[in-house]
Amino acid sequence: MAANKEEIKSAEKSTGVYTLDSGSRGEVKVADDVVASIAALAAAEVDGINGMTGNIGEKLMKSVGIRTGSGSGVRVDIAGNMVRVDMAVVLGYGYNIMETSRKVQDKVKSAIETMTGLNVTDVNIRITGINNEARNDK
User: Fold this and answer.
1) Euclidean distance between the first and the last CA atom of the chain, given in angstroms as a whole number
2) 3-state secondary structure the chain
3) Superfamily (CATH) of domain 5-131
4) Could you tell me whether strands 82-92 and 119-131 are parallel, antiparallel, or unpaired per DSSP bridges?
5) Which of the residues 19, 43, 54, 112 has the least number of beta carbons within 10 Å of its own beta carbon?
6) What would the pLDDT profile of 85-105 be if each residue is shown by its tens digit?
7) Under 8 Å CB-to-CB from 99, ≥6 apart: which residues?
8) Is the CB of residue 84 less than 8 Å from the CB of residue 102?
9) Which residues of 79-96 are buried (b: 16+ CB within 10 A; e: fewer)?
10) Tell me: the pLDDT tens digits for 7-28?
11) Cβ neighbourhood burial of 61 (10 Å; 0-12, 13-18, 19+)
């Protein structure tokens, strides 16, 4: 079950690296930037997303051939085992904003939880632009 916002506020803030596992073989740690990368790549798979704005999102989208702009990109806040994602995206013209945003939220939440075991509490989408150019995935 998703944690409430008070639990996130009361949890200890991450210092940029989160320990996924600490066992007899050693530790498994993941950087906040890795979680942000997972979010950006998952969002890029959603039809209707023509790009992202900002640092990590821009670099990742360029690496898969998608146009980007400038702005705040993808930000993750990890507290305890909970993560909140804030992302800025460019939507393709003609796509339903709510439907596409929900698809992004579902895809990002699923990808992060599956790959890291973290509990995604929020995926906040900010539409920063509309682009009428065709998406270039290849």
Assistant:
1) 38
2) CCCCHHHHHHCCECCCEEEEEEECCEEEEEEHHHHHHHHHHHHHCCCCEEEEECHHHHHHHHHCCCCCECCCCEEEEEECCEEEEEEEEEEECCCCHHHHHHHHHHHHHHHHHHHHCCEEEEEEEEEEEEECCCCCCC
3) Cation efflux protein, cytoplasmic domain (3.30.70.1350)
4) parallel
5) 19
6) 999 999 999 999 999 999 999
7) none
8) no
9) bbebbbbbbbbbbbeebe
10) 433 333 445 777 777 778 888 8
11) buried
Is 87 within 8 Å of 11 (Cβ atoms)?
no
Compare 73 and 21 and report the one with higher pLDDT.
Answer: 73
C-alpha pair distances (Å), 118 with each of 6, 34, 114, 129: 17, 12, 8, 30
pLDDT, residue 51, reads: 83
Which residues share a beta bridge with 48? none
Which pLDDT score is estimated for 9?
Answer: 38
The structure's pTM equals: 0.73
